[in-house]
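Box S2. Input/output pair 1.
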Amino acid sequence: MGQTVGIVEQDQLGGEVVKRFFRVSSMVIAVICFVALEAQAGNGGSGKHFWGLWEGVDSQDGSIEQVSIGPGAGRSFDVLWRESYWTICDGRRGILIGTGALAPKDKDLLEVEMSITCFEPEEVVLEGSITFELVGKNMLLASDPGVFTNLPFFRVSGRVRGGGNGED
């Protein structure tokens, strides 16, 4: 009878080891799948990794700059750029408004058609294009060839969820 108890105890112990192995394996697989899905969503073709509020300081005039990037119509992006002081507006209030799309061959590059409007009196003073290059998760470099290159912006908010276009 002692042997039977020993065999039963050994079988129960072996069963517990197998159960623990499957539990740990399942958790590891779940984590790997989650990480893979997050990586795909963050660097995929949707461009959601650009969404959010970004801030920087203009090294030329010291103005505080904020760029808001969110979902636009279809697969486009709406860009709103404001500064505490616009040199191009001779110190008057102004705003940059643009619509952008991901570069066809580089999903970390946002190409934006924009215009800068100065106020009091209201006038469009510049139309053109700028690019935003994503560096890591929390830094953008803005460039307008011939005007400025690699102006840094840092993320101050996460991407906006539920942008009104059915995407999350």
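Box S3. Input/output pair 2.
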Amino acid sequence: MKSHQKIKEQIEFWFLKYHGKEKSDFNGKEIFTLYDLLSDDLKTELSKSLQSGGEEIPVLFFKVKDGEYIVNTTSRFLKIDASTVDEISYINFDRHVGFKSKVINEDTGEPVSVKKSGVLSEFGIKSKDGDVKYWRMPSGRPAFGFWNITDKCELVGRKYLT
């Protein structure tokens, strides 16, 4: 079992390695970024929803749209919006199933490629019990970064938290 600080460092390493950058290359205003770099006001707003227990540490932040976010802590995924908080523990996380095969632009009703940036689409996260939760995410490079980096959270749940 690893400490939450060590898990945070591991997830940050995966993030920086994926992007091929240093922490100083980010400013916290990116769609997908390091939680530590967020403004104090946003951290305060999010802390009300995080309800973290014990040693859990927020690590990654993904902005779906204004008022709707996904936060990766050292032990779970959290989807936060104005009225709800949904979560998936890494211990119960199996894998990402990715975007639904057909992405529809909400404004035009037309199908678009999941590689086109900024189109909100359903992204599947599968639990070990076979349940798949679909959370809306903007498509494009930030979403694929999220997919590639956080898919490793299965390892965190399997090796570091049990």
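Caption for Box S3: Residues 4-91+140-160 form one domain. The radius of gyration is 15 Å.
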